[in-house]
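User: Could you write out the 3D structure of this protein bound to manganese (II) ion? I've included everything you need below.
Assistant: Certainly. Input first, then the structure.
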Amino acid sequence: MKNLLTTLSMALCAALLLTSCQEATDTQRDADNGPNAQAVADNNEIYTLPDLAYDYDALEPHIDAKTMEIHHSRHHQAYINNFNDAIAGTPLENMSLEEIMKNISEHSMTVRNNGGGHYNHALFWEVMSPDGGGEPEGDLAAAIDEAFGSLENFKEEFHRHGMTQFGSGWAWLIVDENGDLKVTQTPNQDNPLMDVVPDDERGTPILGVDVWEHGYYLHYQNRRGDYINAFWNVVNWDAVSEKYQQALAS
Ligand code: MN
């Protein structure tokens, strides 16, 4: 049925040669996504897309509204749909997301990529805010100074990890098992909770930046460095501090 519709819409495009061809294709793509999304919502709604605490355009000019909308409503939603489909009817349904991450080597690549995708993006939205930027305060500020010498040194190291992550992935600020801060990077949708990450790079992420091209390409094209520089203007240090305290307490 989908093939038939696609064939028909392609034939229509060829016949009419109108600018609406792209529109027709997009509509068809949405139609393809629709029934699946609905089925997940009805049957496998184990994880759901978290609402943002701000509007899609709230992080402008640092992160543009279109990128935020596509990133949240399409990319993140797709990770959730695929993750739900993968774990529905399995014991993973009843495990916490963190528990799944920590034993990820025991699970499929589908669970690893999409469960990681959900965890990472949920954290990413939380550590940004239109009221962000500035500097951390209190215990977190002291811990950053102790671990990196200064906030500037930390930012440089974080930036370097974002820049040197070849291809898609993430740069992280983590709290390791000793309660110390470290900067790390992971490929794809891996994260520092996962047992596939080297021991000395494992820990609880409290800040992360998504360096997949889908996170910046519309506005920054290939200028990943400009995107990471702009990211500091929207970092929600209060949220990062809260995650720091939670990580220390866990
Ligand atoms: Mn992403």
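The longest strand covers residues 169-175.
User: Perfect, thank you.
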